[in-house]
Amino acid sequence: MVSYMSLLIYGVGGIAVAGLALLVAFQEKLVYVPVLPGLTKSYPITPARLRLIFEDVWLTSSDGVRLHSWFIKFSPNSTGPTILFFQENAGSILLADIAHRLEMVRIMLQKLHCNVFMLSYRGYGASDGYPSQQGITRDAQAALDHLSQRTDIDTSQIVVFGRSLGGAVGAVVTKNNPDKVAALILENTFTSILDMAGVLLPFLKWFIGGSISSGPKILNFIVRSPWSTIDVVGQIKQPILFLSGLRDEMVPPFQMQMLYAKAAAHNKRCTFVDFPTGMHMDTWLAGGDHYWKSVRTFIQQNVDQKKLFVIVSQDLSLPCVSVADGSSFRSVIAQMLLICYCYAV
């Protein structure tokens, strides 16, 4: 006769196996949320409603998935930087509450005098397909390739901007394209999905974890979308700006600090700025002028200045004083004085 203890063990084991099977089968639905419950994937408002200059752009990823995006220009003849914006999770490039995306982009245009390219990942918004790490990485590359081939922008001033999940996406595409991306901006981004598993579902921290976790990590092998940003940022050579909301209710702020520490150990052109009242989705709003000044200064020092001195060097035929990628703003000023001196003599 089977004892009650045996029945209990078999029951718990069966539940565990069933739970593991469900986790394996439906993990993409847990990681990716193309639309919030109760909302539709349609676009009730477009940039036209905000009187923005834009065009609908349809891309095809390398595996044939059709993707929707918006290219929004600061002005018809804008020559400023172009922001390639990778969105956070839970929605398309337009939430029902436009304050978190289109309104933010409208202010971004005003504050930075830039163009903005907004991509809907596969399965999000009007884009076809189903989201996965490999697929979204292909989508991001398709967006960057499109921008790099445009003739109406300065392709040397493409800045990748990623928030939350978009930061993980942006880090990968920046690492893979050192010749196409001038700089990277990360906002409220996680170290990895493996680390976030234990944050969102605490019982999982005993089985799944990333490089900052101390658990046994025995189930890491089942995770198909690990998005290990902390392993990527240490390989990025371009300048990186980290924007962290200290009241982030989704991604623990210490994860942003760890990303910065990992990147700064290999890259001297890293800047960290925190915002005491910033939450996961509203750091740009809570940060106010300080937020936009931080972004503007970063771009001016690492993108605009680099372009300026390349032009000066070419115009004066002085290749010996061209600015290296690693130049700080102070060294750029020194280069300018050197150019003036060489020209005078």
From TrEMBL:
<dbReference type="InterPro" id="IPR001375">
    <property type="entry name" value="Peptidase_S9_cat"/>
</dbReference>
<feature type="transmembrane region" description="Helical">
    <location>
        <begin position="7"/>
        <end position="26"/>
    </location>
</feature>
<dbReference type="GO" id="GO:0016020">
    <property type="term" value="C:membrane"/>
</dbReference>
<dbReference type="GO" id="GO:0008474">
    <property type="term" value="F:palmitoyl-(protein) hydrolase activity"/>
</dbReference>
<keyword id="KW-1133">Transmembrane helix</keyword>
<dbReference type="Pfam" id="PF00326">
    <property type="entry name" value="Peptidase_S9"/>
</dbReference>
<dbReference type="InterPro" id="IPR029058">
    <property type="entry name" value="AB_hydrolase_fold"/>
</dbReference>
<dbReference type="GO" id="GO:0006508">
    <property type="term" value="P:proteolysis"/>
</dbReference>
<protein>
    <recommendedName>
        <fullName>Peptidase S9 prolyl oligopeptidase catalytic domain-containing protein</fullName>
    </recommendedName>
</protein>
<keyword id="KW-0812">Transmembrane</keyword>
<keyword id="KW-0472">Membrane</keyword>
<feature type="domain" description="Peptidase S9 prolyl oligopeptidase catalytic">
    <location>
        <begin position="137"/>
        <end position="284"/>
    </location>
</feature>
<dbReference type="GO" id="GO:0008236">
    <property type="term" value="F:serine-type peptidase activity"/>
</dbReference>
